[in-house]
Amino acid sequence: MTISQTNGPGRRGTSRIGALFAAPYVLFVLAVFAVPLGYTVWISFHRFYFTAPGAGVDSPWVGLSNYRDVFTDPVVGRAFLNILIFLVINVPLTVGLSLVLAAALNAKLPFRSFFRAAYYVPYVTASVALVAVWAFLFGSDGLVNHALGGLAPDPSWLVNTHLAMPMIAFFVTWKQLGFFVMLYLAALQNVSGELYEAAAVDGAGSVRRFFSITVPGVRPATTLVLIYAIITGANLFSEPYLLTGGGGPDHASVSPVLVMYQKGIEQGHPDFAAALGIVLMVFVLAISLLARKISERGE
Amino acid sequence: MSTPTDHTRTTPAPSAAARESRSPATRGARTGRILQLTALSLGAVAFLFPFYYMVVGSLKKTTTGDVSGALPGGFTTANYRAINSAISLGRSLLNSGIVTGGVLLCTLVFGVLAGYALARLSFRGRGTVFATLLLVQTIPFQLLMLPLYALVVRNYGLGDSYLGMMLPFAINSTAVFLFRQFFLQLPASLFEAARIDGASELRILWTIALPMARPALLTGVLLTFIGPWNEFLWPFLVTKNTDMQPLAVSLAGFLSNLQGTVANPTGALLAGACVLALPAVALFLVFQRHFTHTNIDSGVKG
Question: Which of A110, A140, A169, A240 has the CB geometry, 3.0–4.6 Å to A89, for a possible disulfide?
Fold first, then answer.
């Protein structure tokens, strides 16, 4: 120890400095992820109320009672169904559109940087700002309905039981697409250009080349896109809360996080919300693993 | 560098031949190119139209949803004044700026230190820290909001404070990962030479690694900026006092219950939306060239 210090930082010296450099980040992860995660698990097994600090209210152990409430709540069921509707619309659209766009933008094109910018502008813009425009566009008296005339849906888009959730799925697909285009653009850098040349010499058309070279070539990125889409679905809050006024007609567009907010904070049942959070996390991990399995099977 | 030149020097003939044999296909490719450009332009219109509509709507005296509402003309700044008086725009912007600035500062200072340690220093638990970093990137933050709310607002009394709003985003894990990847790419000999010369790690980081890491820092700033600037749920939970709310939260409050207070509520809302959108969009357009997809890729490869 003393030797390494006098001879300048050797193994042990750097070891201590490395830990010191990483310490703030480690503390941050503990405070923001590990402790709250443990606390959620604890709350989910107890009867728990929000109280002022120091107020001595008991939090008795209630076993799985909160989980039972979560599984028998019809609104929770609806929220999970809504996430499935969201994924069924969002995932194929996102994967298909972003891959085709990335393949097109990867080629030498006039105005290429303009196009790239056009597609990622919604991604960098706040949901709250975009929700304001969409509510205006798709409102009962909005531009879309004026354009459609007699074909406009009744009740209108955002207050229609059947359309509220698909609208959210389309909104999120549109908003996030630019991020996925960039992800695929990066993945395309790893697909060898020689493959395309060889295929072209062999007479493969552009559609054929897309499906036999591009699609398999970016498979790891597709896994990532799938996982991100699932995480986005699980995180949905601002869109159902703001775009469809607190979850749509008859909970038609509630999301699990919105239910967590309503139950946990508005109605004062944080224990229920904590159990729902744990269920949601297990759901996310399970679907992510499944997505990884499916997309890696072909390799 | 030398291989591609060798390649083109030794094999010009086959590629020229291939080009010639494909000449009917080239015409097909040209129509394909035109189709592609048309499709891309239509897509770009679909992506940009809402922004155009937002700006035009924010400038109209009466903002209506019919077709005339999409045409430019009859502009006024009344909506900007209306939203400014309804939610005190300046104060909200200041709050957004303070929170975002604080997060950026923490991510740059502590994130660079952690990234450097993970890439260039050996210490006990380094593998665990890195594995945790990868895991943290996939945990949806929203799932932890309740216990975080209980801890931050109820137990620590950080409700209606900048610190409370910043805490969950203080160090952006994706940025730490990005910095680590960048420092890993630098040649090890640079660091060894400096260490032999007796430079301290902090000095090596400051004078050698950081100046070379400028592109990674810029990407880190851009990646980190949009999170706290656009975030709605967390500051919405933490702030009750409207004087402390960032713009996204004040605007959402206006959207849900203050619209009756102004003459042209839609116009005022769109004006606020423009003010909220502008900084992030401008930042990205200005630095677009630097915000390359390769950087994004190394940021998400976990």
Answer: A169
What torsion, rounded to 10 degrees, do the Cα atoms B205, B208, B209, B210 define?
Answer: 80
Which residues 6+ apart lie within 8 Å of B289 measured at CB? A113
Q: Does B158 touch chain A (CB under 8 A)?
A: no
A284–B233 C-beta distance less than 8 A: no
Residues 230-289 of A with CB under 8 A from B: 231, 234-235, 237-238, 242, 245, 257, 260-261, 264-265, 270, 273-274, 277, 280-281, 284, 288
Per-residue pLDDT reduced to its tens digit, B190-202: 888 888 888 888 9
Q: What is the share, in percent, of chain B residues with pLDDT greater than 70?
A: 86
Q: What number of helices (H) and strands (E) belong to chain A?
A: 16, 0
Q: How far apart are CA A97 and CA A84, in angstroms?
A: 20
Average pLDDT value for chain A: 87
CA separation for the pair A163, A165 (Å, rounded): 6
Which of B129, B143, B169 to mutate to test binding with chain A, by most A CBs within 10 Å of its CB? B143
Omega before B147 cis (within 30°)?
no
**Residue B62 or A26, more confident:** A26
Average pLDDT over residues B131-147: 83
Give DSSP secondary structure letters for B56-93: HHHHBSS--SSGGGGS--SB-SHHHHHHHHHH-HHHHH
Tell me what the mean pLDDT of segment A89-107 comes to: 92
Residues of A whose CB is below 8 A from B22: 200
Task: Specify the 3-state DSSP secondary structure of A160.
Answer: coil
Could you give the CA distance from residue B28 to residue B31 in angstroms, rounded to a whole number? Answer: 5
pLDDT average, residue stretch B227-249? 95
Instruction: Please state the rounded mean pLDDT for residues A214-241.
Output: 88
Q: How far apart are CA A47 and CA A43, in angstroms?
A: 7
What is the four-CA torsion angle of B111, B150, A283, A69, rounded to 10 degrees?
180
Q: How far apart are CA A202 and CA A205, in angstroms?
A: 9
Instruction: Extract the tokens encoding A68.
Output: 């039972």
A46 three-state secondary structure: strand
Distance CA A115, CA A111 (A): 6
pTM: 0.88
Mutation to test the A interface, candidates B23, B142, B165, B172, most A Cβ within 10 Å: B142
